[in-house]
Each structure stands twice: as structure tokens, then as C-alpha cells.
Amino acid sequence: MEIRLENLTKVFTNKKTTDTLAVNQLDVTIPSGKLIGLLGPSGCGKSTTLYMISGLLKPSQGSIFFGDDDVTTVPPEERGIGLVFQNYALYPHMTVSQNIMFPLENLKVPKEEALERAQKIADLVGIGELMSRKPAQLSGGQQQRVAIARALVKEPRVLLLDEPLSNLDARLRIQTREEIRRIQRETGITTIFVTHDQEEAMSISDEIILMDFGVKQQMGAPQNVYDEPENLFAAKFLGTPPINLFDGKITAKKIKLGPAVIGTTQSAPNDIVIGIRPEGFVVEEEGPIVADVEFVETIGRDTTLIMIDPTDATKRFRAIVDSDYRIEAGHQVQLSVKPHKMYIFDHETGERL
Amino acid sequence: MVLDSVVYGDEKQNRRKARIRFSLVLTMLIIFGLFVVIPFYWMMLTAFKTEAQVLTAPPILWLNPLNWQFSNFATAMDTAPFLRYMGNTVLVSSISTVGTIFTTVFAAFAFARLNFNGRDFLFMILISTMMIPGEIFVITNFLTVVELGWIQNQTYMNAILAMTLPFMTSIFYIFFLRQSFRQIPDELYYAAKVDGTTDLKYLFKIMVPIALPTIITITILNAMGTWNAYIWPRLVTQQQEFRLVSNGLRDAFSNIAGRILYNEQMAAALLVTFPLLVVFLLLKKYIIRGVSRSGIKG
Amino acid sequence: MLEDKSNVKAWFYLGPALFLLSIFIFYPIFNALFLVFLRDYNYLQGTWEGFTLFENFFYVFRNQNFTQALTNTMIITFVSVPISVIIALLISVWLNSVLKLRGFFQTIFFLPYVTNAIAIGMAFAFLFNQNYGLINTMLGWVGLNPVNWVGLGATWGNAMFSLLIYVVWASLAFKIMVFLSGLQNIDKQYYDAARVDSTKRYRIFRRITVPLLSPMIFYITITSFIGAFKAYTQVIGMFGVRLGPPGNDKSLITIVALVYDALDRSGVPGALSEAAATAIVLFLITLVFTLINMQVSKNRVHYSGGGK
Lengths: 353, 298, 308
Description:
The complex is a heterotrimer.
Chain A: E1 3-12, E2 20-30, E3 35-39, H1 46-54, E4 61-66, E5 69-70, E6 81-84, H2 96-106, H3 111-125, H4 140-152, E7 158-162, H5 170-187, E8 190-195, H6 198-204, E9 207-212, E10 215-220, H7 222-227, H8 232-237, E11 244-251, E12 254-257, E13 260-264, E14 270-276, E15 281-283, E16 289-299, E17 302-308, E18 316-322, E19 332-337, E20 342-346
Parallel strand pairs in A: 3-8, 3-9, 6-7, 7-8
Antiparallel strand pairs in A: 1-2, 1-4, 4-5, 9-10, 11-12, 11-14, 12-13, 14-20, 15-19, 16-17, 16-19, 17-18
Chain B: H1 2-8, H2 11-47, H3 51-54, H4 71-79, H5 82-113, H6 119-129, H7 134-147, H8 156-164, H9 171-182, H10 186-194, H11 199-210, H12 212-228, H13 231-236, H14 245-252, H15 262-295
Helix pairs in contact in B: 2-15, 4-15, 5-9, 5-12, 12-15, 14-15
Chain C: H1 7-35, H2 55-62, H3 66-97, H4 102-110, H5 117-127, H6 134-141, H7 156-185, H8 188-196, H9 201-229, H10 233-239, H11 255-264, H12 271-298
Helix pairs in contact in C: 2-12, 3-7, 3-9, 3-11, 5-10, 7-9, 9-12, 11-12
């Protein structure tokens, strides 16, 4: 099921304070059968978008299409969606099987069929043995699976997950996200999940939609967005450790970081922000950037150099280099930059140049 | 080292201190415990005494169970139809409790879950009337019941209506239920909405079962309220046999001229008290939890 | 959807409760405010002699029992509430500090909550009986003479003393239940921290327990005051409808008793207005003391961050 959002806008009106523009003219087409990560910092409008797709929130403007159907005004229960909440929202007084069967009850599915379907879906998510337990007797990961089973049991056209992993501990998170990936592949259902954790989104999504301030920043396959950020926000948001940013200039088609010339461009002379990924530096004797090394961290095969920004001595930047180089703190190094790991952005608009 | 000596001191000495403290606390608890229990004991003791034993000075403080005079209960029952009063009380309490739960659950749901114009304003009005003493309502409610024709030539049906209808809802219980409804995460409601659950079904399948402890508390509080009701039933009942236990008890032993037969009076009092004590011991856990919660205003 | 107003549905859900509340709460409030300004309202004929601002209140104050009722109500309130709050607080702290026997004592102390006020009132009356009662017997053990607490011609003071003992007894259970559950909700860490600092027991009580329990103490005190101003059934339980020991009738009359007194005379012109005026006076007294209470407690109640 392809999902199309056209000009989707949500304004929260509040009597006491000013109105909040949570989602601003969002145009997105989500391809059928894919796992899509809706990514952004908290308050960026990603959950609001998800809730509008679910039908729990009504858009202030714009339309939502499921395939060719305009579902903008269709109530949630008629959209054919499954929704998994951040806190799972399991009914505490019902057993696992009662929880999973609850949506079918509303669809007037005969009891035996409902039981059969519940068992099948429970087996799929790996909780088939826990059907008679109450939610309080389950671990966080098991509760999560019950919530997914409950969302899937009515065979929805779209599966929506709101921060599905944020209530789990680190180890379980990795395990569960692979589980979500597997379930999505096996069912082939179009799935959108909301997260603020870039690693989570990058690791399992077919495509990610990056949002900030209610506006779509970039959409694409995770590696593409990482390799080709369209703006400063996208560059800053993805990557650990984060991208290094320097104030720079373009003069006579040369990209200048302080005195160092680190590349060429066709753009007009301008103040720019230069972004260089930590892995984008190479230690070279002839390298144009000269910096003082403050710390050296060697973990396994990587060496991280923490260095003083040559344009602003109050700032630091990181480079991840091969551990073949033996560099000590307090020394000076010369660095050159891998061209495909460096991006330049307009100083005012943040747009990629 | 210094810290050690301050915190732990001499272990032997500390243990002795703790034992002394425990004995002191225990003594106080026993003294106050006796203060609480003595009236019950006195009631029971007297209820089993013969008239001669009652009128012995100094009083007999312990009675061999073999010498208990059970006939006091029979005599008490002859003095007034206590079984009838208990029946009335159970009936009135059941009707008003069912009615109260019905009206308050719906109202609390509206306040906790639905979005409508004037919700906060209406709720504020309800809360502010909780301060007003019931006597202000009683005056007019008495007139209302008279106007409804439930007093003149009163039938049993009229009496039951007069004793239950004004108590079929309660602002405090609406408030109390709303509090426990609001503790249920919103996501449960959204999840149910996505699955096409109607509000009514959500209320009865999800909210009510989750808030069941509160509903049990309301049932208990309401039942005990009826068991203790004295003023209103006395005002609105025209015949002896329509009254509730408290009225029956008070009236049966107030009108006798001259000497009061204490053993019969206490036997009747025990009859009235006993069912409540049994209920308490059976439902102790729920009552304590519920009452404590009702006292901790959220 | 979520934000849609569901006005029609809401009123449907509120309907039954609002219907009953309108008849038995809202209308009576307005009617009481109406009655109190009518001159010589004759309820049987539905007539009155014009309006008056204060006359019905004068009736209340000129009632021969008013001063007595006001005095009694005040004494019952201001003696029984502080005493029972303090005793209940102590008992719950003691209960909380013992592990052994706690369940047993809990049951004992909660018993009075589930009794019939009239039945226990009668038991108390007999406890205080001059010749055959336990109290005088116990006084005899320590060499004191028997006192006529509640018998024929008993003095007001003796009768009031007996009543107060009963009122305190009856009001302990609820307070202990609430305090004890409050104590059990206090984080043990505070006590551990205090012990590490080797704080003395009574200081722990004064500096940790009471402040952390203060919102609850405050709430209980206010509701107890409101409840105590309405004292009436306890008097009926101990002394019957005579509201006093034999030969000293109505000596323990309370303000609420005055309301019902007036209501019993409902056929007499002006009686209903007098009842309404009495109830309004009671409300105003309650209101004033509640406001004073809130003012006094303002600086002494400690509300923890997100607490209830």
C-alpha cells in the first residue's frame, strides 16, 4: 500500500499560548511494502505525522492517500491500520491472547477464527507460548511483541510504530529492531516507524524521512542521506561521532578553511559552513590543515584524534584515522580531506552548495 | 572510623535500645488498642448478661461462655423487627449503590475522557458544591419528596424511593472515579479507537475493569453509609417497619419509660454491629486500601 | 477524531448524574437561598408575607438553644479534631515502626470504622453508667469516687466529656488508615539518609515524617473540621433524641440539631426559613474556619515535587 501525504499541515491551537505549527506542508510518497523510518529530534513533528496517518489526529490542511483512496477524513478504525504505541498500551487486565484478540472482537470475527489468527500471529512474533499471561508478567521485549501482534492481527494495510524501541534496554533494542525488520519482511506490510535515534533508523529502514521543525529535510535510503546530505541539518543529525563543522569561505572558487585551501568549487564567493565527517581526514605530510592534537583515543583498529580547531581555538574537532599512525598528544599534525566526505553549506540558509 | 562509631555505636547496647523502644511502642499500642476494643467488648459482654448480672455493682468483667444468656437476642428481636430493618437497609443500600455506580461511572467517563464545551467549568461547579453542608440540601429535598407524594399514605415502594433516589449519585464519587480513570494512559484509548472500539465498549471493557478497585471502594463506602444512615430515613419514613437499622435501634430503646434493659439494648446493638464486623473482616484488604485511597485526595 | 468535541455524547453520559444532581443538589441550594429571604413562609399554603434580608437569621440567633448549640459544636470540633489527629498520627507512626503484630493491631485500630454510630453510642452510654459502668469501676480501682457522667441530672461538663471520648474514639480509625498508608508511601531513602546522619528519633519524626506527611495531615484536618461542625448523630447515639442526659435535655444540642428541630416544625410559618438560615450559618462558620485553616497551613504544608 503506497501512502501519499500532500501538503500535510498540522497547527495545534491553544487558547493560552500562541498556536504551534507542528507539521508544515509535508509532501511525501511512501512506497508500498517498505520499512520507513521517520526520524528527527524530539518536537520535530514526526509523531504528529504518524498520528495523522493513523487518523487519531485531524490534519489542519492537506490530504492523506492510501493507494488511490483519500483517507483524510476517514476515522481511524476504517483506515485499516495497526498502531503500536511507545508504552505499548496493552490492556493490563487482559491476558496476552485477549489483548491480541481484542481488535478482532470489534470486527465481529467468530471466536474460533479469532483464536486461530491470534495464535498464528503470536507465533510469528515469537510469543506463542505466553498467551495466557497478563502484561505485567512479561518483560519489556515481550510486551513489545504483544503490542505488535495486536496491531498485526487484523491484517492492516499499514503498520505504524511510535518510538517502538525507546522503552527497551540497549541489548534488547538491537535484538528487537532486527525482529521488527524480520516481521516486516515476512508480512510485506508497509511500515512506518517513528524514532529519534539515528542508529535505529539507519540500521533497519529501507528509507528514512528526516524531519525538523515540522518540515521534511530529506528522504532517501539511509546510506544515501548519510553520503549526500542536502542540508546542514541532515549532515549534523546523522553520524556518530557527529560531523565536524567549520566556518569557511569561498574565494576565487577555492574552499578555504582559515588559511588552508582544501578544495575547489564552482560556487560564487560566499561565507560557508564546511562539514567534514570524522572519517574524512587523512594524515599527510603535505596536508593543508595544520592542527594541534589535544587527545588521542585508540580503540581497537581506530584512532580518534581530538584536535584544536585552527580557525577557533575554543572549539575542538575529531578525526578518525588509521591506527598505523602513531601520533601523540601535544604534537602537530597535517591533514588533508577526502573530497567525498566533505560538504559545504550556505552560511545563511544551511543549503548544500 | 569516626563515622562507624557514630552510626553503629556499641552493637550490644544498640540492640538493647531497640528492644526497649519496641517494648515502649508495644505498650502504647496495647493501651490505645484496649481503648478501641473496650466498647466492643463491653457491648458483647453486656449482651450476654442476665438482668441481674447487668445490675451488679461492681460490674462482672468476664462471663463464662457456658453462662451466656442468648435469650437477650430473642427478646431484642421481639422489641423491634430488627430482621426487617436489616432487610430494608440491605435493600436501600443495594439500590442506591447500583444507582450511584451507574450514574457516577458515566459522568466520570465524560469528565475524564470526553472533550466537550464547558467541561472544566462544570467540573469546577461540582467540586465547589462539595463544601456545602448536606443540611442545606436536606431542607428542600424533604419538601421535594413530599411534593412527589412519597410521604402521605406512604407505601413501602414510596419509602424505598424516598430513601434511595436522592442518593443515587455523588459528586465525591464522580471526582474519585474520574481520578482513577485519568490514571489510565491515553494510549489505551487511542489503541482502542484504532481498533474501532466505541466509547461505550471502551468504558465497560477497559476502563471499568481497570478501575474496579475504586468501584469496590465506592460500593463499600456507600453500603456503610446506608448502614449508618439515621437522619434522612427518620425524616422520610412514616411507618416503623419501613425504617433502617439505626432508626430501629434508637427508637426501640428510647421510648421505654423508666428503667432501660441494658442487656437487651446491647444485644440489639450487637445484632446491628455484627454483620458489619463480619463484612469488615472478610473484606479487610479492600476496605483498607480503598478507604486510604479515598482519603488521599489526588 | 481525537480533538473533535463530542458534545452530544458527553451530555448523554452526564445526563443521569446531572438530572439527579439538579434535583437534589443544585435546586436545593437555590431554594435555600430563596427560603431564607421569605417572611413567614407558610409551606402548607405556599404563601409568604413579603421578603426580608435578616429576619430569619435573627430567628436563628434568638432561638433559646442557639448559644448552647454553637458552644457545643465549637467544643466538639476544637477539642476532638486536634486530639484525634495527634493520637492517630502517633498510633500510625507506632504501627509503622513495628513489624511483628502490625497486621493484628491494624485490624484492631480499623474496627471502629465499620460500626454503627448509634449502636456504639449506646455502648458508650452504658460504659459511662454511674453504677454499673466500666469507667466508674476503673476510677474505683485508683480510689476515685464514681461520677454521674450521663445519668439522670448529670452535669453538662460530665456529659460533654463522655461525648468527646466517644467522638474521638469514633474518628480515629479513618485517620489512622489514611496516615498509615501515607507513611508507607514515604520513600525509605529519607530514613536511611537520616540514620546515616545519626538523627535522633523524635527529630526524624518532626523533621522528616511530619513534613512529608503534611499535605495529608492538612487534608485530614480540614475534612475533619468540616465533619465535626456537623456533629449530631453521635449525640443521638449516646443520648437519644433528648440530646442530653435525662433531666438535662438538649444540653448537648448542636447546630445541625437546630436545623432538624426547625425542620420538624415545618408546618409552622417561618420554620423552613429558619432551618435554611441555620444551615447557611453553619455553612458560613465552616467556610470561615476552612479558609483560616488554609491560611494557617499555607506556609507549613510541604508539597513534594510531583506528589499527590
